[in-house]
């Protein structure tokens, strides 16, 4: 989230698209209810199904799964055509005026530089014209045909309301009503918030879906303001924390990168990360990358990381592929290239696509270790459960170890919510049975592995033997110790660079912000964005002061929000070029002539003059990007791409399947379905009665939603002869499942490309373990392909077929 | 009382920001089933109400979950029968139930998914209490809460017939009737009902009835501004008003919300049964018994006279067996 | 054998001096008393649930829960017990022309001037009324009772129908209690009657006075009776 849950109450218009907030985030949704009740805010829902969120919406429109980019580009086109643009914001705070290289272009659904062989783009042309002064060239009048604004206008031109209706199946009048409602938020005094979740991310072009809405929000001037923003509703409690502390295979904590093979040494690694400003006077905050990185290396290897050995850079692994993401791991596993797999708090047999392939992959492991509070399907993948898990245990040689862990209510620590708040919590119960904290288990394994290296040596024992392990009980690091380490402390005296007589921190003292981090080895911090969460004043995450002066929704003294306790990112953009709030009734920050003051921690140095420093300090431009240069693999603008399994061809290029640069493993390409074989579009989702595959273990949740079902329209039910509550078989290219049929008016057939498109809704909460009735997840059916940028699996749009099933099939 | 509705007192915070005055107990009972002449309590408690704002409800079933947890009931894991309702109906272990209705508004041609939390309405004039034959099995407190006292309940199911809303359910285990208690045990210590506490969107709020009605008015204003011209409160007169009230977007058509009664009242049949039949029946039976007794005591009994016996002997003699040709060959 | 118009085959003269007439067999008497006991228990348990002032009667059964549980079970016993009785008695309870005269002169009956009335068979119109009223009311009660039997038939009929059923059950119960009072009272007031259901016999005088045709028929039959 750029903003926070509590800030949603400040909005005038909530657009829920690519998510189902009421259903999947009912507690956070209270802030939508609050905005509606207290501010008269309106709620728009765009979804293939009329969801629980839609049930309390002011306006609903259906959309075909996987066609969101067309819809969003259509809205942008409508806003530009109807002058629903916050011009001051666009001119000053976006890269609309930047000139793009002449070679850049787009044709036949593809941007310049596509290499079909490599399924990748040569992105050289996707960049600004750089002038002789080393800065990007701009045309503040937006007249130059090569400026981003004019390129954007040209890019969205095909996305007419008729185009949207044809591709998305959204009736034109509904689309236009939504455009008008959204267009009202282009005035500085009206804001719109976007609430999205896995309905946008779980596509082969998920990142571009989000880009589309982010661009719209920039055009409307809704980023950095109260009641605005791009608000990703994180799918798990603390999944924000997972990405923050680098549990992605290509990241290290604080969104720093694992080096790649092409960066064999510190110099080559750092050279591509010291982003010089692209406009005069801009901050380009990533110039501080080295400070964060050195502090991280000091946190990892302490005294073994020195300036002389390039901070032990050689200890870090170097990636030979973009990432060892989940799907790549299972692909390798399926090729017999993985011996041991640790599965911690993760149930991939239900959570990753193409379950048949996963079962095969797990069967090729020598050992599978599952750390989980529950008996998961993954840890029982080898066990026969009739049709629900039809395997032959005798033929599976994988040894499975279950290590029971504590659950969140038995742990101490911080959870990071969608709004980036680190909220400390305390154990509410004693762990049952043999359950142990994850940290205890990891430490126990670690100390034994280190002992082995100590006793037996090894090819490269140094990173193991020198790892900093500075905990009172090495076998059981405490949450406080870990939190303090992530925050970071001074290793030597840290002084103010502008006034060396002023001591900021003495050795051993906790640091109070990432501005105090140094690249000379005098500081350490495990996760720079968390610096400030545990200072010399104590645990900032444990704060519970719910005072909120003037009811802004900021709650600055409640917990800690990274970065720097900032509640709304890019908050400088809440004020105009002169530093006056766009909407005085919703002031966030204001320039008082000398410094920024207001209700939030300013995003830019508090004394930076408003005309000088742009609000988007992490970007070398100082402004936000309508054109994202080469930052994304699949294009600088979002372009409509069909899902890999789609009922219609891409109207721009009928030969193009899915996202042209998404990674597809050879064997999986053969397992994509066509609409001739499988005419129905399926999409997967959550229900509010359950949380993923956990709560089916709880009899209360199981009673509230006991059995696997699919949702279909009355029309499809009539066509197939399916009765309400009847049993159906749903099958696709990769598997089959049986479910009860919920026949509903809330799903209606769509008309796309002149054809009737039926949608089958498949919720995801059932498996073969737990208290609920046995069932399946949608992953038995979904394709093994992910987003081109971040490899999030395409769970939200795939093809199936359905038929009535009268009885329990014989396994 | 305040002029405007304060913030809802539960669900927003725990402990409540504005706690409800705690403490009510057996002294505050105003009606007791099968008991006449209940002494007037010394004090009158402020009337309470739970407001269910259907327009804010997202159907998440947190109320059901909280209800199960608080009351420590455990409904069975049933099956899916093609709808979202689970359990499929109120049960002795499920005192409240989200009911889902897909309704196409003929005025707008828009689909509406009407989700209503069903449960005891806590009628001012409770039909269950009127129907109940067991003294003290159902009581009503002066704050409006209607509660079942299980040790007095005999499990006859008369409350089911008395209720205009089809709420009470008889347990197959202990054979007593169960329904929402409005969390009388929580309210007694100044807390709100568990469902209100758990409701994430404050669709369920709890407080004094006056405040809840005032709060409902602000909600109705908001709904009218969104085009729901017939938005209104459901606080049916026919049962003297209720202590669970709804805000409905279509208050002119309660029955579209899964058969919420348009004009609920205690059935005239139940009134007849528990009114004139009960009184007159007892009177008639009593009179008959007394009349018979008096007649027996004071009127001359119908005695067999000695001459009757003689006549009988003579008759038997006359008809005495004598050899005679058989008549009936 | 001539068709018996006023008596059952088992009715017979038991002794001649003085005359005693066997009116009911042992099995019939047992049947009657099972039915009677059931009815009395039903009456007590039913009244307990009918009016709060009589709720104390549940104490007889061990409390409200037991009363609620046992009432319908006794009802089933009564129903089948009465059914047996019905099968034994229904024939002679069919109306006859003399019943009309009897009813028209009910005042003479109450005054004890039965000599002014026609001779009667085994049952007079009053007894027949009790018999048929019981029969009809028991059917009504069993049907309405099952409809409101929560424990075993919780959803047999809709709630509106159950409301009607419970009202009908109450009204029928009041009626059957009135019939019951009439039956008991008549048995007591008409001295010499009770022995018919205790010992199974009545005196000849009783039979002469109240059911002369019945006596006549038995006597006539005995004439060519067992001796042959």
Automatic annotation (TrEMBL), chain B:
<feature type="binding site">
    <location>
        <position position="180"/>
    </location>
    <ligand>
        <name>[4Fe-4S] cluster 2</name>
    </ligand>
</feature>
<dbReference type="Pfam" id="PF09163">
    <property type="entry name" value="Form-deh_trans"/>
</dbReference>
<feature type="binding site">
    <location>
        <position position="183"/>
    </location>
    <ligand>
        <name>[4Fe-4S] cluster 2</name>
    </ligand>
</feature>
<keyword id="KW-0249">Electron transport</keyword>
<keyword id="KW-0677">Repeat</keyword>
<keyword id="KW-0411">Iron-sulfur</keyword>
<feature type="binding site">
    <location>
        <position position="163"/>
    </location>
    <ligand>
        <name>[4Fe-4S] cluster 3</name>
    </ligand>
</feature>
<keyword id="KW-0408">Iron</keyword>
<feature type="compositionally biased region" description="Low complexity">
    <location>
        <begin position="1"/>
        <end position="15"/>
    </location>
</feature>
<dbReference type="GO" id="GO:0051539">
    <property type="term" value="F:4 iron, 4 sulfur cluster binding"/>
</dbReference>
<feature type="domain" description="4Fe-4S ferredoxin-type">
    <location>
        <begin position="111"/>
        <end position="143"/>
    </location>
</feature>
<feature type="binding site">
    <location>
        <position position="128"/>
    </location>
    <ligand>
        <name>[4Fe-4S] cluster 3</name>
    </ligand>
</feature>
<feature type="domain" description="4Fe-4S ferredoxin-type">
    <location>
        <begin position="144"/>
        <end position="173"/>
    </location>
</feature>
<dbReference type="InterPro" id="IPR006470">
    <property type="entry name" value="Formate_DH_bsu_Proteobacteria"/>
</dbReference>
<feature type="binding site">
    <location>
        <position position="57"/>
    </location>
    <ligand>
        <name>[4Fe-4S] cluster 1</name>
    </ligand>
</feature>
<feature type="domain" description="4Fe-4S ferredoxin-type">
    <location>
        <begin position="48"/>
        <end position="79"/>
    </location>
</feature>
<dbReference type="Pfam" id="PF13247">
    <property type="entry name" value="Fer4_11"/>
</dbReference>
<dbReference type="InterPro" id="IPR017896">
    <property type="entry name" value="4Fe4S_Fe-S-bd"/>
</dbReference>
<feature type="binding site">
    <location>
        <position position="60"/>
    </location>
    <ligand>
        <name>[4Fe-4S] cluster 1</name>
    </ligand>
</feature>
<dbReference type="GO" id="GO:0045333">
    <property type="term" value="P:cellular respiration"/>
</dbReference>
<keyword id="KW-0479">Metal-binding</keyword>
<dbReference type="GO" id="GO:0005886">
    <property type="term" value="C:plasma membrane"/>
</dbReference>
TrEMBL record, chain C:
<keyword id="KW-1003">Cell membrane</keyword>
<dbReference type="InterPro" id="IPR016174">
    <property type="entry name" value="Di-haem_cyt_TM"/>
</dbReference>
<comment type="similarity">
    <text>Belongs to the formate dehydrogenase gamma subunit family.</text>
</comment>
<dbReference type="GO" id="GO:0015944">
    <property type="term" value="P:formate oxidation"/>
</dbReference>
<dbReference type="GO" id="GO:0005886">
    <property type="term" value="C:plasma membrane"/>
</dbReference>
<dbReference type="Pfam" id="PF01292">
    <property type="entry name" value="Ni_hydr_CYTB"/>
</dbReference>
<keyword id="KW-0349">Heme</keyword>
<dbReference type="GO" id="GO:0046872">
    <property type="term" value="F:metal ion binding"/>
</dbReference>
<feature type="transmembrane region" description="Helical">
    <location>
        <begin position="164"/>
        <end position="189"/>
    </location>
</feature>
<feature type="transmembrane region" description="Helical">
    <location>
        <begin position="69"/>
        <end position="90"/>
    </location>
</feature>
<dbReference type="GO" id="GO:0036397">
    <property type="term" value="F:formate dehydrogenase (quinone) activity"/>
</dbReference>
<keyword id="KW-0249">Electron transport</keyword>
<dbReference type="GO" id="GO:0009055">
    <property type="term" value="F:electron transfer activity"/>
</dbReference>
<keyword id="KW-0479">Metal-binding</keyword>
<dbReference type="GO" id="GO:0009326">
    <property type="term" value="C:formate dehydrogenase complex"/>
</dbReference>
<dbReference type="GO" id="GO:0022904">
    <property type="term" value="P:respiratory electron transport chain"/>
</dbReference>
<dbReference type="InterPro" id="IPR006471">
    <property type="entry name" value="Formate_DH_gsu"/>
</dbReference>
<keyword id="KW-1133">Transmembrane helix</keyword>
<dbReference type="InterPro" id="IPR011577">
    <property type="entry name" value="Cyt_b561_bac/Ni-Hgenase"/>
</dbReference>
<protein>
    <submittedName>
        <fullName>Formate dehydrogenase subunit gamma</fullName>
    </submittedName>
</protein>
<dbReference type="InterPro" id="IPR051817">
    <property type="entry name" value="FDH_cytochrome_b556_subunit"/>
</dbReference>
<feature type="domain" description="Cytochrome b561 bacterial/Ni-hydrogenase">
    <location>
        <begin position="23"/>
        <end position="200"/>
    </location>
</feature>
